[in-house]
Amino acid sequence: MYLVWFGTCETADTMAIVMRALTIRLPDETCERLMRLAERRGIGVNRMIGELVTLTIAELDAESRFTSRAQRGQGKLRRGLQLLQKSKRSAAEG
Protein backbone atom coordinates (compact mmCIF):
# COMPACT_ATOMS: atom_id res chain seq x y z
CA MET A 1 0.00 0.00 0.00
CA TYR A 2 1.24 3.48 -0.77
CA LEU A 3 0.80 6.33 1.62
CA VAL A 4 1.31 9.88 0.44
CA TRP A 5 2.25 12.45 3.07
CA PHE A 6 1.99 16.16 2.45
CA GLY A 7 4.00 18.30 4.81
CA THR A 8 5.16 21.86 5.17
CA CYS A 9 8.62 23.32 5.40
CA GLU A 10 9.62 26.89 6.10
CA THR A 11 12.51 28.32 4.17
CA ALA A 12 14.84 30.43 6.31
CA ASP A 13 15.36 33.18 3.76
CA THR A 14 11.74 33.88 2.82
CA MET A 15 9.84 32.26 5.72
CA ALA A 16 7.40 31.08 3.07
CA ILE A 17 5.74 27.75 3.56
CA VAL A 18 6.59 25.26 0.86
CA MET A 19 4.48 22.15 0.47
CA ARG A 20 6.22 18.90 -0.29
CA ALA A 21 4.77 15.53 -1.15
CA LEU A 22 6.44 12.35 -0.01
CA THR A 23 5.28 8.92 -1.09
CA ILE A 24 6.20 6.04 1.18
CA ARG A 25 5.55 2.34 0.83
CA LEU A 26 4.25 0.51 3.86
CA PRO A 27 2.99 -3.01 4.31
CA ASP A 28 -0.83 -3.08 4.30
CA GLU A 29 -0.99 -4.07 7.96
CA THR A 30 1.32 -1.22 9.03
CA CYS A 31 -0.64 1.31 7.03
CA GLU A 32 -3.93 0.11 8.45
CA ARG A 33 -2.58 0.28 11.99
CA LEU A 34 -1.26 3.79 11.37
CA MET A 35 -4.66 4.90 10.10
CA ARG A 36 -6.42 3.36 13.13
CA LEU A 37 -3.98 5.01 15.52
CA ALA A 38 -4.46 8.41 13.90
CA GLU A 39 -8.22 7.95 14.05
CA ARG A 40 -8.09 7.03 17.76
CA ARG A 41 -6.05 10.17 18.43
CA GLY A 42 -8.48 12.24 16.44
CA ILE A 43 -5.92 13.47 13.93
CA GLY A 44 -5.23 12.82 10.27
CA VAL A 45 -2.56 10.47 9.01
CA ASN A 46 -0.57 13.40 7.62
CA ARG A 47 -0.43 15.07 11.01
CA MET A 48 0.40 11.76 12.67
CA ILE A 49 3.36 11.18 10.37
CA GLY A 50 4.46 14.78 10.80
CA GLU A 51 4.47 14.36 14.59
CA LEU A 52 6.39 11.07 14.36
CA VAL A 53 8.99 12.64 12.07
CA THR A 54 9.33 15.64 14.41
CA LEU A 55 9.91 13.33 17.39
CA THR A 56 12.49 11.31 15.49
CA ILE A 57 14.38 14.44 14.45
CA ALA A 58 14.28 15.74 18.05
CA GLU A 59 15.75 12.44 19.26
CA LEU A 60 18.52 12.66 16.68
CA ASP A 61 19.28 16.25 17.69
CA ALA A 62 19.43 15.26 21.37
CA GLU A 63 21.73 12.35 20.58
CA SER A 64 24.02 14.63 18.56
CA ARG A 65 24.19 17.17 21.41
CA PHE A 66 24.89 14.41 23.94
CA THR A 67 27.64 12.92 21.77
CA SER A 68 29.23 16.34 21.27
CA ARG A 69 29.20 17.07 25.00
CA ALA A 70 30.56 13.63 25.81
CA GLN A 71 33.47 14.19 23.43
CA ARG A 72 34.23 17.58 25.00
CA GLY A 73 34.22 15.99 28.45
CA GLN A 74 36.60 13.14 27.66
CA GLY A 75 39.53 13.12 30.06
CA LYS A 76 37.85 15.58 32.43
CA LEU A 77 36.32 13.12 34.92
CA ARG A 78 38.55 14.08 37.84
CA ARG A 79 37.87 17.80 37.38
CA GLY A 80 34.14 17.15 37.08
CA LEU A 81 34.08 15.16 40.32
CA GLN A 82 36.00 17.94 42.08
CA LEU A 83 33.42 20.49 40.95
CA LEU A 84 30.60 18.21 42.10
CA GLN A 85 32.16 17.88 45.57
CA LYS A 86 32.66 21.65 45.75
CA SER A 87 29.01 22.17 44.83
CA LYS A 88 27.86 19.71 47.50
CA ARG A 89 29.97 21.49 50.14
CA SER A 90 28.58 24.87 49.13
CA ALA A 91 25.03 23.56 49.33
CA ALA A 92 25.64 22.05 52.78
CA GLU A 93 27.12 25.32 54.07
CA GLY A 94 24.53 27.59 52.55
Could you explain how this protein is built, in words?
The protein is α+β, with helices and mostly antiparallel strands and 94 residues long. The chain has one domain. Helices cover 64% and strands 19% of the residues. The chain contains 3 helices and 2 strands. A two-stranded antiparallel sheet has the order 1-2. The radius of gyration is 23 Å and the shape is elongated.
How many H/I helical runs? 3
Q: Work out the helicity level.
A: 55-70%
Order of secondary-structure elements: EEHHH
Report the C-alpha radius of gyration, rounded: 23 Å
Strand order of the largest sheet: 1-2
Total DSSP E strands: 2
Number of domains: 1
- Kindly report how far apart the N and C termini lie: 64 Å
Mind describing the biggest β-sheet? Answer: 2 strands, antiparallel
Q: What gross morphology would you assign?
A: elongated
Beta-strand share of residues: 15-25%
Please, what is the average pLDDT? 83
Secondary structure category:
alpha+beta
Note poorly predicted spans. Answer: none
Briefly characterize the structure.
With 94 residues, the protein is α+β, with helices and mostly antiparallel strands. It contains 3 helices and 2 strands.
